[in-house]
Structure formats: structure tokens, C-alpha cells
Design goal:
heterotrimer, A alpha/beta, B mainly alpha, C mainly alpha, A: alpha/beta, six-stranded mixed sheet, 10 helices, B: mainly alpha, MetI-like fold, ATP binding (chain A), ATP-binding (chain A), transport (chain A), P-loop_NTPase (chain A)
Amino acid sequence: MAKRIDVGGLTAYYGSHKAIEDISMTVEPRSVTAFIGPSGCGKSTFLRTLNRMHEVTPGGRVEGKVLLDDEDLYGAGVDPVTVRRTVGMVFQRPNPFPTMSIFDNVAAGLRLNGSYRKSRLAEIVEKSLRGANLWNEVKDRLNKPGSGLSGGQQQRLCIARAIAVEPDVLLMDEPCSALDPISTLAIEDLIGELKERFTIVIVTHNMQQAARVSDRTAFFNLAAVGKPGRLIEIDETERIFSNPSVQATEDYISGRFG
Amino acid sequence: MASTTSPLDSPPAPPAPPGRPRSTGRVGDKIFIGLSRGSGILLLVIMASIAVFLSYRAVLAISKDEGNFLTTLDWNPAGDPPVFGIAVLLFGTVVSSVIAMVIAVPVAVGIALFISHYAPRKLAAPLGYVIDLLAAVPSIVYGIWGALVLVPYLEGLNLWLDQFFGWTYVFEKTEVGIARSLFTVGILLAIMILPIVTSVSREVFLQVPKTNEEAALALGATRWEVVRLSVLPFGRSGIISASMLGLGRALGETMAVATVLSPSFLISLHVLNPGGGTFAQNIAAKFGEADEFGRDALIASGLVLFVLTLLVNGAARLIIARRKEYSGATA
Amino acid sequence: MSNATTTDVQDDRPRTAPKPPGTGLSSRSLPRWAPLGFAAVALALGVGTGLAAGWHSRTQWGLIAALLFLVISYVVTTAVENRRQAKDRLATSVVWVCFLVAVVPLASLLWTTVSRGAARLDGYFLTHSMAGVLGSEDTGGVYHALIGTLEQVGIATVISAPLGLLTAVYLVEYGKGALAKAVTFFVDVMTGIPSIVAGLFILSIMLMAKIEPSGLMGALALTILMVPVVVRSTEEMLKLVPNELREASLALGIPKWRTILKVVLPTAIGGITTGVMLAIARIAGETAPIILLVFGSQLINTNPFEGAQSSLPFYIYEQYKVGEAASYDRAWAAALVLIAFVMILNLAARGIARWKAPRR
């Protein structure tokens, strides 16, 4: 079930270094929100605060609120493990578990969260692989290692693994940056399909990609070198790319800097 | 780990030097290649002569052995007729090493995980350091510590094991006497190989790609599940090679066994009873009083130990090579 | 590793037990001091059981307490939280117990050596031999053994370092084909040779050539143990030298051998030195070959090429075997000297590695 994300006054640190400062925004359910901005502006850091992966990094900590349908991810008594199960993530480089077969990769999250009958497990795995547009390519070799697939297939395998546990939100951290154009296209098509079921947030360096796949776009930038990253504006993608309200956004999009 | 590197991993040879090399170039290169290749060949010659010389002296001894070299339960090369066999030594070596492995490997993997994934960060780095230093403590020091400190300490444990687990036969203590037994030797060997097994395993655990661990975390895995899903599968071949390295040390360990064990030429599965012997211990203990023939007999037993450690190391290498093939675990 | 912090947050975050209605993210959980509490209870029960049953060995008390700790934390966590959390906590506990179980003997080893060794260790001990000293007498020293160790290890190093270095250069810079493969394989094999077997090999030569025991023979056996270690570590270091450096030098028209001597080796020299020093530390403690080949002596013999010598590890073994209180003291003191020697080498080697590392 897709959920809404409300971020209020979020600041994230690496030790004493402030990476992003005072970010507030709303992410609508069943939509694709793209984060764009120059390198090092904190968009990936911000993305990782949305499922508490930020605190995995040594010294990583967060101030502020992230509400998932009115419940604070950082509230007292909230278990980060549960948060990450609810908010799935796809990484920059495809990272299937190298020692597991394709089937086991997709089933990994399910097996963590309870015991399923074999037939039920097979059902969900098939559904997830179909959902990731990978089923037809791998259905004959489900027991082969996932690391034997091509880069694009591996990334779709990782998407299948993430959606198998039916998360509410799917975060994607530059999911196509390590892929060739054809695989990229396949993933972009897939994102269009997945937004029917999930709330999707995607970080991308590729502005055409942001324009193609997202409904809303958020532009991040550094106030100055050495200062923390900030959210400059967030709006309908169409508006951001045709008529942004902030000059810096227009400069970035038209390629005048960054 | 040392075992997996091969010259084929080295980067492709750089392009040949451009034409018209300085006159010293060609000659210098030839000398240098000659020297370095010569060193490699010399190592091969040494290895070959180890095998040849040991075998030659061993054959001299075994041909005059009136007992069966493999099955005789006695070591009396000075007797008339000379009778000696390695059955007791093989048994003692294997049993003490197996005890050591059973204790050391799980504990070492636990400590390695503790350092790489569980310990507070401030503690982790110095701990790794201390473990590396402990790996360098000479075995004779472990030996006197084992004999003078550990043995008295284990007396209570031995009685207790006998009391509660005596029914297992293995832990039945049928002879009175202090704990200079194969079991104590096994524990001491376990303590000795703990640092090396830990240190190699930790090295491997630290190499687990971060993306792998994050994949598990992002699925909502607890810390233990991260370890189970990404760290242990990735580190499995490393754990195996670390264990084999430890086993190799345990099999050939001389001083720690020589100081702790009270030797007797007996085969007994009652591991708490004092007695038994190992190849290395027997060589160190019998060497002083042996004449030339006696020394050849000891060399023959050393040859068996040599082959045993070769087999263990070879097996380890095979396991690792095969794992690599189908796990696709590339870092 | 990253996880240390994460998991601190995961496990130790104070949590409010009742979960707010209508939400799925919070769950019931134990307070952060729970593991400490379990440990205290387990320890009390362990000691109690031990006292009640009248076991005098504290090893058992500790083992019982450790076992109880695991059981209690698993059961309580299963009851209050859930199975997954319980497994996670069990794993954490097991890992902590492993660590503690291992620390005890290793700490005891170091403590015993230092405390008992320091009692006897002084200037006299370092500067006198055992000439004319009876086992039960409270005098004598380790001077002759120190000399033996330094000479034997010195000779072994002088042979092993160039041999190992050149072999590693061959494997990394020139090695191709069957010969290199064979050398790599047999270097691995040599790494696994027990020290006593290396000793027996030299012994078999001595028996055939009718050579008498001497420090040199021991040094040769130590060489067999040292060379593969040097080859391995040097190989690793040479592989770390970026290929661009070699190409840059070769592109300047510098012949390969000069490239290796002037560019590759200097770049890796820090790591190579570290490797050699660690190898020295390793062989300095070897006893078995010395028993077979150097024979041991109570007297000062500064000539490693003729006559029996002693060495530190041999001295320790010898004094242990005498079995008198005074000789045990000497054994511990010598052990302290040996450990100090090895540790200083180790620390210095690591210091060099750290000092050279950023510039690599």
C-alpha cells in the first residue's frame, strides 16, 4: 500500500559535518518524485534518511521528522529494521547477494520476515519477477546465481527483491547510472509501471531521465562550497523543466552550471 | 590470503621498452631476470630436496623396521630387532588437532565478527591490533604457560567432564593423574591458533562489499541477518582457508605439545587420560637419546607429518578454488 | 565497519513499550540495559551453582554463567519482543561470549609472562651465561642464548631476504607460464611446512654429509621457514604498486630492470620491510629446529659456524625441563625477553607500514 511521506525540518550529519540542512517536503503516494542537483549536494544522503540507512554510516545522525502517513520514522520506539522493511531501496550499483540463486535473492526478504509455504513463496517470487519485467528472461534459470546476469538484469533482480516484501515506498539511488542505455530504458519503463502500486523516490543525475519518469521534481543545491546541501524547490516536473520559480534551478537545468 | 595469488593475477606485462635501448639495458635485464628466476628455481630445488632427502632417510629406516611402520604400537628403533610404528603418533596428532579445531574455529569466527561487526568502533581497531600481536607470540611461550598455568587450571574441568559426561566414553577419565592429556593439548592448541584464525577471518569479513550489507539492511534485516545473508556467505572460503591454516599449525606444533603432554605409547579414546603422543612431540622428545638409525626413524615419522600437512593445505586450496568458481564472490 | 554504529542505534535505542494505535513501525522492546541485567543474573547464578556444588575450578563457574546468559537473553527476548529479535540478540551474545572466553587465556598468558618474567629479569640476567650454574641455583643468565638467537636469525635473514625478494620480483614482474605457476604453488606449500620438518630436512643432510651441529645449521632451517613468508608479503606489496608507474618509467625509455630497481622497489620498500620484520619475528621464536640442529649449550659460543649454540626459545625449553623453581623463573624471564623482542619487531614493522603507507 503506497504511503505519503512528509518531511519536516530535516538535518543530517556525518559526525560533526552537516550534510543537508532543514529540508521539508511532501512526497505524494503513487507518484514518482525525482531528486536532481549537482554532485555532493546531499540528495543521496537525503534519500537515505527516508529509510534510516543514513545512520548505517559511521557518525551518521539525523534531526527533524520524517512522517510516513503520520507516523514518524525517527519517533521513540520505532525499530529501524521495521522501517527498512516498509521503505525499500534500490542502490546505484546492482547488488544481488553473490552466493544466492536468482530465486533465493528475490525470496531473501520474505524469508527474513516469516515462513512461507514453498508454493506461496514461488508464487510471490514469480509475481515480483514479473513485476520487475524480468520473469521471461530468467524463468528457466531461477536456480542459477544472480551474479551471472547482465548489469541491467541484476538491477531488475534487485528491484524484484525490493518489491517482493511489498514495501510502501521504493527509494532508488541513481539506479541507472551503472547501466547501458537499453537497460536504462527498461528500468525507466518499469518505474512507470511500479508507480501504480508504490510511492517512488528516485535520485538521478540525468535530467532527461527525471523529465521522462517523474511526476514531481525536487532540485537540491549547496548554498556555497563547504556548506550543507539544501532543497531549492520542488514542483511539478513539467513546471521545473519549463518555468522554474528559482533562477538557480533554471541555470542548472539549462546547463549553465553543475 | 597467500594461497590464492598466482602470477596470472599480475597486471599484463607493460609494453616493451622503446627501440634503441641504452646499451646497459639488455645486459642488465638479462642479469636481473637471471637472478630472479634463479631464486624461484632455487626454491623449487629446495622443496624437491626436502621431499627426496626425507624420503631417502625414511626408506633407510623403514627397510630395517621389524614391525609394521603404520600399525605398530611401539617406538623402539634401538631395540633388537628394531620395532617402531606411527599409529600412536598419527592418532594423537589427529585427535589433538581435531579437538583444537572444534574449539577454535567457532570461537575465532565469533571474535572476528565481534571485531568486524559488533564491537564499538573505538574498541575494534585496537583489538584487531592486539590479536595480530598475539599471533606472533612464540609457541614455546604458549608451551610453558600451558604446562605451568593451564594444566593445573584444567584439573577441575576434567573431573567435572568425567563426572557429567563420563558416559560418553570419550570424556571418561579412567586413570588418575594430572591433566597432561590429549584434551589439554587440544585446548592449548586451540588457544594458540585462535589469533591466526581470527586474524585471517576478520580480514575477510572486513572485505565484504558494503553494497552487499546494505542490500540486506534495506530489506529490513537485523544485524544478525545481515551477517547471515551477506557476511558469512561471502567469508565462507576465507573461514575455510583460515581454519586450514590453523589446522596446519596445530598438526605440526612441537613445543606446546612437548611441554604439556605426558607421553605414552598408547592409543586411547579416553582423551582426558594422560598419555598419547604426536609426531612433532615424539621427534623432539626422542631426538636427544637417538643414535643415527633412531634419527632416521624419526625422520620417517616426520615425512608422514610432512605429507599430512601437504594434504591439508592442498585440500584447503582446492576448496577455495572451487568456491570461487561458483559463488561468483568477487570483491 | 559501518555496522557498529547502526546496530548500536538499533539495539540500544530506548524504546517506549506500548505501541501507539494504528501504526506498524513501533514494537515492544526491552530496555537498553537488558543485556547487562542478563549478564548480572547469569553471573550470580553461575557463581551460586559453582559454590553450591563445591567446584573449585572457576573455569566451570564461568562456563555455566556464559551458558545461562545465552539462554536467559534468548528466552526473555522471545517472550518480550519476537523470535527475530531474539535470534539477533542471541547472536550478539554469542559473539560477546566468544570474545570474553578468548580474552581470558590470552590475557593470562601475557600477564603470567610479564609478572613472573619481570621478577627475575635484570641486567645480570641479560649479561651472563649459564656456565657452571646448576639448575637449582638462583643465578645464571640468558646472554649466550641471546647471542645465539641474534646470530642464527641474522644469518637466516641475510639469506632469506634477498632470496625471497628476488623470487617475488620474478613472480610479479616477469613470471609467466609453468615455472611461475610451480613456484607460486610450492611457495604456498612451503608456507605450511611444520618447523620440525624443516629441521629434519637439514638433519638428513647433516647425517649424510657428516656435519656437526652448529648455529649455521639452525639458521638454514629457519631460512626454509622464512623465505616463503618474505615471498608472500613482498608479492602482495609489489602488486600494490600501480601499473601506471611502471608504464610511465618504461615510456621514458628506462630499461625494465632499472624500472624495477628505481621505481617499483622504492615505492614498495615500506611494505617489504614490514614483511621482512614480521618474518623475523616469526622465526625468532622457533624452537624445534634448534633442538635438532644446534643442540644447545650452557656456554657462550659466538661462532655460529662451529660448535653447539643456544637460542632464546631453546633456553626456555631447557630451563622448563630442569623443573626446579629457579629454572622456572629463568624460563619465564627468558620468555619475557623473547616476547619483548618479537613485540618490538612487530610494533616497529607496523610503525614503518603506517609511516610509509600514505605515500604509496
